[in-house]
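// run 5 | inverse folding | seed 20
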Protein backbone atom coordinates (compact mmCIF):
# COMPACT_ATOMS: atom_id res chain seq x y z
CA UNK A 1 0.00 0.00 0.00
CA UNK A 2 1.39 3.44 -0.91
CA UNK A 3 2.49 5.59 2.02
CA UNK A 4 2.76 9.39 2.36
CA UNK A 5 6.55 9.08 2.14
CA UNK A 6 6.53 7.42 -1.28
CA UNK A 7 6.36 10.72 -3.21
CA UNK A 8 9.15 12.17 -1.08
CA UNK A 9 11.35 9.13 -1.68
CA UNK A 10 10.69 9.36 -5.40
CA UNK A 11 11.59 13.04 -5.38
CA UNK A 12 14.84 12.37 -3.54
CA UNK A 13 15.69 9.54 -5.90
CA UNK A 14 15.25 11.89 -8.86
CA UNK A 15 17.60 14.53 -7.47
CA UNK A 16 20.88 14.93 -9.38
CA UNK A 17 24.15 13.85 -7.85
CA UNK A 18 27.06 16.19 -7.26
CA UNK A 19 29.07 17.05 -10.37
CA UNK A 20 32.41 15.50 -9.52
CA UNK A 21 33.96 16.82 -12.74
CA UNK A 22 33.29 20.37 -11.55
CA UNK A 23 34.64 19.55 -8.09
CA UNK A 24 37.86 18.13 -9.54
CA UNK A 25 38.30 21.10 -11.88
CA UNK A 26 38.05 23.55 -8.99
CA UNK A 27 40.53 21.59 -6.89
CA UNK A 28 42.98 21.46 -9.79
CA UNK A 29 42.62 25.18 -10.38
CA UNK A 30 43.26 25.93 -6.73
CA UNK A 31 46.45 23.89 -6.92
CA UNK A 32 47.65 26.00 -9.88
CA UNK A 33 47.25 29.35 -8.08
CA UNK A 34 50.20 31.30 -6.73
CA UNK A 35 49.71 30.30 -3.11
CA UNK A 36 50.72 27.48 -0.78
CA UNK A 37 48.63 24.35 -1.23
CA UNK A 38 45.67 24.41 1.11
CA UNK A 39 46.52 27.84 2.48
CA UNK A 40 42.90 28.99 2.32
CA UNK A 41 41.87 26.14 4.58
CA UNK A 42 38.20 25.25 4.81
CA UNK A 43 37.31 27.90 2.24
CA UNK A 44 38.87 25.78 -0.50
CA UNK A 45 36.72 22.79 0.46
CA UNK A 46 33.59 24.92 0.52
CA UNK A 47 34.24 26.33 -2.96
CA UNK A 48 34.79 22.83 -4.34
CA UNK A 49 31.60 21.64 -2.66
CA UNK A 50 29.65 24.57 -4.09
CA UNK A 51 31.03 23.90 -7.56
CA UNK A 52 30.00 20.25 -7.38
CA UNK A 53 26.41 20.99 -6.40
CA UNK A 54 25.97 23.96 -8.73
CA UNK A 55 27.57 22.02 -11.55
CA UNK A 56 29.78 24.99 -12.41
CA UNK A 57 33.53 25.27 -12.84
CA UNK A 58 33.26 28.78 -11.41
CA UNK A 59 30.59 28.64 -8.68
CA UNK A 60 28.70 31.80 -7.83
CA UNK A 61 26.95 33.20 -4.78
CA UNK A 62 24.74 35.96 -6.13
CA UNK A 63 21.45 35.09 -4.41
CA UNK A 64 22.24 33.65 -0.98
CA UNK A 65 19.29 33.12 1.34
CA UNK A 66 18.89 32.12 4.96
CA UNK A 67 15.50 30.78 6.04
CA UNK A 68 14.32 30.15 9.59
CA UNK A 69 11.27 27.99 10.32
CA UNK A 70 9.46 28.79 13.57
CA UNK A 71 7.31 26.20 15.32
CA UNK A 72 6.09 25.18 18.77
CA UNK A 73 6.82 21.76 20.23
CA UNK A 74 4.41 19.78 22.39
CA UNK A 75 7.24 18.37 24.49
CA UNK A 76 7.39 21.75 26.28
CA UNK A 77 4.63 20.34 28.50
CA UNK A 78 7.32 18.15 30.09
CA UNK A 79 9.27 21.14 31.41
CA UNK A 80 12.21 20.94 29.02
CA UNK A 81 12.50 24.72 28.55
CA UNK A 82 13.03 27.69 30.82
CA UNK A 83 10.44 29.68 28.83
CA UNK A 84 6.81 29.29 27.79
CA UNK A 85 5.71 28.81 24.19
CA UNK A 86 4.48 32.36 23.73
CA UNK A 87 8.13 33.41 23.48
CA UNK A 88 8.28 31.79 20.02
CA UNK A 89 5.76 34.31 18.66
CA UNK A 90 7.63 37.17 20.33
CA UNK A 91 10.88 36.09 18.68
CA UNK A 92 9.18 35.84 15.31
CA UNK A 93 7.88 39.37 15.73
CA UNK A 94 11.41 40.50 16.60
CA UNK A 95 12.67 38.99 13.35
CA UNK A 96 9.94 40.83 11.48
CA UNK A 97 11.05 44.13 13.01
CA UNK A 98 14.68 43.45 12.07
CA UNK A 99 15.77 43.16 15.69
CA UNK A 100 17.23 39.66 15.75
CA UNK A 101 20.93 38.87 15.72
CA UNK A 102 20.40 36.88 12.55
CA UNK A 103 18.87 39.95 10.90
CA UNK A 104 22.08 41.87 11.48
CA UNK A 105 24.33 39.05 10.31
CA UNK A 106 22.37 38.64 7.09
CA UNK A 107 22.34 42.38 6.48
CA UNK A 108 26.08 42.68 7.06
CA UNK A 109 26.91 39.89 4.63
CA UNK A 110 24.18 40.71 2.07
CA UNK A 111 22.17 37.55 2.62
CA UNK A 112 18.46 37.43 2.05
CA UNK A 113 16.46 36.38 5.10
CA UNK A 114 12.99 34.87 5.47
CA UNK A 115 11.19 33.61 8.57
CA UNK A 116 8.42 31.05 8.12
CA UNK A 117 5.73 30.59 10.76
CA UNK A 118 4.29 27.11 11.04
CA UNK A 119 0.99 27.61 12.91
CA UNK A 120 2.34 28.40 16.36
CA UNK A 121 -1.09 27.97 17.92
CA UNK A 122 -0.99 24.27 17.00
CA UNK A 123 2.09 22.70 18.61
CA UNK A 124 3.20 19.25 17.56
CA UNK A 125 2.27 16.31 19.71
CA UNK A 126 4.35 15.71 22.82
CA UNK A 127 6.70 13.10 21.38
CA UNK A 128 7.23 11.50 24.80
CA UNK A 129 3.52 10.59 24.81
CA UNK A 130 2.50 10.32 21.15
CA UNK A 131 3.88 10.85 17.65
CA UNK A 132 4.83 14.48 17.10
CA UNK A 133 3.27 14.17 13.62
CA UNK A 134 1.52 11.51 11.63
CA UNK A 135 3.15 10.57 8.34
CA UNK A 136 0.88 12.75 6.22
CA UNK A 137 1.62 15.85 8.28
CA UNK A 138 5.33 15.07 8.37
CA UNK A 139 5.54 14.85 4.57
CA UNK A 140 3.43 17.99 4.20
CA UNK A 141 5.85 19.82 6.49
CA UNK A 142 8.80 18.66 4.41
CA UNK A 143 7.04 19.80 1.24
CA UNK A 144 6.34 23.19 2.80
CA UNK A 145 10.05 23.54 3.50
CA UNK A 146 10.61 23.66 -0.24
CA UNK A 147 9.11 27.15 -0.15
CA UNK A 148 12.58 28.26 0.95
CA UNK A 149 13.66 27.95 -2.69
CA UNK A 150 10.86 30.11 -4.07
CA UNK A 151 12.19 32.96 -6.17
CA UNK A 152 15.51 31.34 -6.96
CA UNK A 153 18.47 30.78 -4.63
CA UNK A 154 22.04 29.75 -5.35
CA UNK A 155 23.16 29.24 -1.73
CA UNK A 156 20.68 28.29 0.99
CA UNK A 157 21.12 28.31 4.74
CA UNK A 158 18.46 26.76 6.98
CA UNK A 159 17.61 27.32 10.62
CA UNK A 160 14.79 26.73 13.06
CA UNK A 161 13.43 28.51 16.10
CA UNK A 162 10.85 27.69 18.75
CA UNK A 163 10.60 27.01 22.45
CA UNK A 164 11.30 23.32 23.02
CA UNK A 165 13.35 23.02 19.85
CA UNK A 166 16.56 21.83 21.48
CA UNK A 167 14.77 18.87 23.07
CA UNK A 168 13.58 17.76 19.63
CA UNK A 169 16.94 18.55 18.04
CA UNK A 170 18.84 16.62 20.71
CA UNK A 171 16.82 13.47 20.18
CA UNK A 172 16.98 13.77 16.39
CA UNK A 173 20.75 14.23 16.49
CA UNK A 174 21.13 11.21 18.73
CA UNK A 175 18.92 9.05 16.48
CA UNK A 176 20.45 10.17 13.20
CA UNK A 177 24.14 10.23 14.15
CA UNK A 178 24.42 7.64 16.92
CA UNK A 179 26.16 10.13 19.19
CA UNK A 180 25.60 9.48 22.90
CA UNK A 181 22.49 11.32 24.00
CA UNK A 182 24.39 13.05 26.80
CA UNK A 183 26.57 14.75 24.17
CA UNK A 184 23.51 16.02 22.32
CA UNK A 185 21.53 17.53 25.19
CA UNK A 186 22.25 21.06 26.41
CA UNK A 187 20.68 23.81 28.47
CA UNK A 188 18.72 25.27 25.57
CA UNK A 189 17.48 28.73 26.53
CA UNK A 190 19.12 28.57 29.95
CA UNK A 191 17.96 25.64 32.07
CA UNK A 192 19.43 25.39 35.54
CA UNK A 193 21.11 22.18 36.71
CA UNK A 194 17.85 20.64 37.88
CA UNK A 195 16.12 21.50 34.60
CA UNK A 196 18.99 20.08 32.55
CA UNK A 197 18.91 16.83 34.54
CA UNK A 198 15.13 16.58 34.03
CA UNK A 199 15.54 17.16 30.30
CA UNK A 200 18.29 14.55 30.02
CA UNK A 201 16.29 11.95 31.96
CA UNK A 202 13.17 12.58 29.88
CA UNK A 203 14.96 12.24 26.54
CA UNK A 204 16.92 9.22 27.73
CA UNK A 205 13.70 7.46 28.73
CA UNK A 206 12.09 8.30 25.39
CA UNK A 207 15.14 7.08 23.49
CA UNK A 208 15.10 3.78 25.36
CA UNK A 209 11.38 3.36 24.72
CA UNK A 210 11.91 3.94 20.99
CA UNK A 211 14.72 1.34 20.96
CA UNK A 212 12.50 -1.22 22.73
CA UNK A 213 9.71 -0.58 20.25
CA UNK A 214 12.09 -1.09 17.33
CA UNK A 215 13.35 -4.33 18.93
CA UNK A 216 9.79 -5.64 19.23
CA UNK A 217 9.22 -4.82 15.57
CA UNK A 218 12.33 -6.73 14.50
CA UNK A 219 11.07 -9.77 16.42
CA UNK A 220 7.66 -9.59 14.79
CA UNK A 221 5.72 -8.33 17.82
CA UNK A 222 2.21 -6.95 17.51
CA UNK A 223 3.41 -3.52 18.62
CA UNK A 224 4.58 -3.05 15.05
CA UNK A 225 1.47 -1.03 14.26
CA UNK A 226 2.72 1.73 16.56
CA UNK A 227 5.29 2.57 13.91
CA UNK A 228 4.70 3.93 10.45
CA UNK A 229 3.50 1.58 7.70
CA UNK A 230 6.87 1.92 6.01
CA UNK A 231 8.66 0.56 9.09
CA UNK A 232 10.04 3.91 10.19
CA UNK A 233 9.50 5.35 13.63
CA UNK A 234 7.12 8.31 13.16
CA UNK A 235 7.99 9.86 16.52
CA UNK A 236 9.80 12.79 15.00
CA UNK A 237 9.47 16.41 16.08
CA UNK A 238 7.92 18.52 13.33
CA UNK A 239 4.92 20.62 12.39
CA UNK A 240 1.44 20.58 10.90
CA UNK A 241 -1.03 23.09 9.39
CA UNK A 242 1.56 25.12 7.57
CA UNK A 243 1.51 28.76 6.69
CA UNK A 244 3.19 30.80 4.04
CA UNK A 245 6.22 32.84 5.06
CA UNK A 246 5.43 35.11 7.97
CA UNK A 247 7.62 37.70 6.35
CA UNK A 248 10.65 37.99 4.17
CA UNK A 249 12.87 40.70 2.80
CA UNK A 250 16.10 40.78 0.90
CA UNK A 251 18.97 41.99 3.05
CA UNK A 252 21.31 44.62 1.69
CA UNK A 253 24.76 45.85 2.54
CA UNK A 254 23.79 48.25 5.32
CA UNK A 255 23.72 46.70 8.78
CA UNK A 256 20.78 48.90 9.78
CA UNK A 257 17.26 47.67 9.15
CA UNK A 258 15.30 50.16 7.10
CA UNK A 259 11.47 50.11 7.06
CA UNK A 260 11.48 48.84 3.47
CA UNK A 261 13.23 45.67 4.62
CA UNK A 262 10.97 44.91 7.53
CA UNK A 263 7.80 42.85 7.53
CA UNK A 264 5.11 43.51 4.99
CA UNK A 265 3.23 46.09 7.07
CA UNK A 266 3.93 47.38 10.58
CA UNK A 267 6.72 44.99 11.47
CA UNK A 268 4.41 42.26 12.74
CA UNK A 269 4.47 38.92 10.94
CA UNK A 270 1.62 38.51 8.49
CA UNK A 271 -0.80 35.60 8.74
CA UNK A 272 -2.04 34.64 5.29
CA UNK A 273 -4.13 31.54 4.70
CA UNK A 274 -2.76 28.04 4.99
CA UNK A 275 -1.24 26.26 2.05
CA UNK A 276 -3.58 23.60 0.72
CA UNK A 277 -0.86 20.99 0.57
CA UNK A 278 0.10 21.67 4.16
CA UNK A 279 -3.18 20.79 5.81
CA UNK A 280 -2.58 17.32 7.22
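// decoded
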Amino acid sequence: MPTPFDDMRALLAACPDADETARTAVIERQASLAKPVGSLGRLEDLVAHLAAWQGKLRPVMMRPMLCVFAANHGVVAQGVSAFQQDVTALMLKTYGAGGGTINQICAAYEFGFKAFELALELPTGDFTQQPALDEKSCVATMAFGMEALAGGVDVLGLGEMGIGNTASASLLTHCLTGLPLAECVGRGTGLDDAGLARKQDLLDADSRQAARRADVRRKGGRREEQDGPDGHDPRRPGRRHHRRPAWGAQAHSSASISPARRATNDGSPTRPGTLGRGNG
